[in-house]
Design brief:
By secondary structure, this protein is α/β, with parallel strands linked by helices. Helices cover 42% and strands 13% of the residues. The longest helix is centred in the last third of the chain and has 28 residues.
């Protein structure tokens, strides 16, 4: 099977490509702000050479007939696949379906912050709803699936998510860095969406002595998030030290060097928590116990601690992890056993390639069968989307620190 993967989030498509057995997967991704500094793997993928939607669509139309099927990660990837006239599977991770762009007055899903996100206009919402409805399959895991099934009752649930075991395991050689006291790593983005404000509060309540190394990586999708981050940094606990971003190829070495990992308190298990558990490091990470994982038909509550977002409970847990080797080893074994069942690439790739086979049998050609009316509508949407998405993306890129000149280089 020849699969075209467009877009990537937390290297899910890259790892899918890496462990494929019965399929050959080519990955094309969107230009990154700092290709050499991000924690994403930059090898074995191609990049669009423009941020203009029309040029991205032109690229896909030129290569689409080389493939049997397409899988997209992110709404940006989905809109390109839709406008290219191909059949595509939409795979949702993070908040992509919790805050879909076709819904008005979206409220952020991972925080207690109830102010709605900026609305898209009617044309944009209609466009993204068409993009969503046109996909031949919609896939999500656990928490994301609960949102997805509200909009697509026949959605597919695949809770298994990859860990790249060539990069993350307990046999990796640790980095050579001095360590004077018990050290936690915080590898996620700084932002309320990750529960960093709660962690900061918990750290100030701790009684033990330890260091926390936090990578310099921010959630700043909006001006409000940017302001929140400035307040977080201003009130950063004494234990926290900011370190540069770590390349993904080196991430496992940092994890095995550390004493423990400070995960997110959002309720969602992300790549960092999975990767760290596979390295047999204890992970402090809040998971909503009302949303168990589904593995081979069995509901399993992830064995991460704490079971509460109360900063006092988290502080007590941190102190216990620092002081009790026996307790750390107990959590490590429980978390590793769980993540082995969930994320071993041998079983994850099996689930995905079974889905690919099913979809290719149902849709023998990657080219979508649109009616003449549908093609006209698609062309109209394409022209409208180009202008609207350009203007909105221009604003977003400036907020995220690209700068106008860098952005214009990719939009000529």
């Amino acid at each position: 099977m020849k699969i075209l993967a467009i877009g990537d989030t937390a290297d899910n498509n890259h790892t899918l490509k890496k462990f494929a057995k019965k399929s050959e997967i080519d990955l094309i991704d969107f230009p990154k702000k700092e290709v050499t500094k991000t924690s994403n793997v930059q090898t074995q993928r191609e990049y669009f050479d423009s941020l203009l939607v029309s040029k991205q669509v032109k690229k896909i139309k030129e290569i689409k007939d080389n493939y049997d099927l397409c899988i997209v990660l992110s709404w940006a990837a989905a809109r390109v696949a839709y406008l290219s006239g191909i059949n595509y599977i939409m795979y949702f991770v993070g908040g992509d379906i919790g805050n879909p762009p076709f819904v008005k007055n979206n409220v952020p899903i991972y925080t207690d912050f109830k102010k709605p996100l900026p609305n898209l206009n009617w044309v944009e919402r209609s466009f993204y709803k068409k993009v969503f409805d046109t996909a031949i399959a919609h896939v999500a895991s656990n928490f994301e699936y609960l949102f997805l099934k509200k909009y697509k009752p026949n959605a597919i649930r695949l809770d298994r998510m990859f860990v790249d075991t060539t990069l993350f395991n307990d046999k990796i050689k640790p980095i050579n860095r001095p360590k004077k006291k018990f050290t936690f790593l915080m590898l996620g983005r700084i932002g309320k969406a990750k529960g960093v404000d709660i962690i900061w509060e918990a750290l100030k309540l701790c009684k033990t002595d330890f260091d926390v190394l936090q990578v310099e990586w921010f959630m700043q999708r909006t001006e409000e998030e940017k302001k929140d981050n400035e307040i977080l940094i201003k009130n950063m606990p004494k234990q926290v030290k900011i370190i540069p971003l770590i390349k993904r190829e080196e991430l496992g070495r940092y994890i095995v060097w550390s004493d423990a990992i400070m995960g997110q308190i959002s309720g969602i298990t992300g790549a960092i928590e999975r990767d760290s558990a596979f390295c047999k490091k204890v992970v402090i990470h809040y998971v909503d116990t009302s949303k168990p994982s589904l593995i081979d038909g069995n509901e399993i509550i992830p064995p991460f601690e704490p079971k509460s977002k109360d900063p006092r409970v988290i502080a007590e847990l941190i102190d216990k992890v620092v002081t009790s080797k026996e307790y750390r080893e107990k959590l490590i074994q429980e978390q590793y056993d769980y993540i082995k069942k969930l994320s071993d690439p041998k079983v994850v790739i099996r689930d995905w390639e079974n889905l690919f086979e099913k979809m290719i049998k149902k849709y023998p050609s990657i080219n979508r069968q649109d009616s003449n009316l549908g093609l006209k509508f698609q062309n109209i949407l394409s022209n409208l989307a180009e202008n609207l998405i350009y203007k909105r993306t221009m604003r977003e890129r400036n907020i995220q620190g690209w700068g106008e000149e860098n952005y214009k280089l990719l939009t000529k």
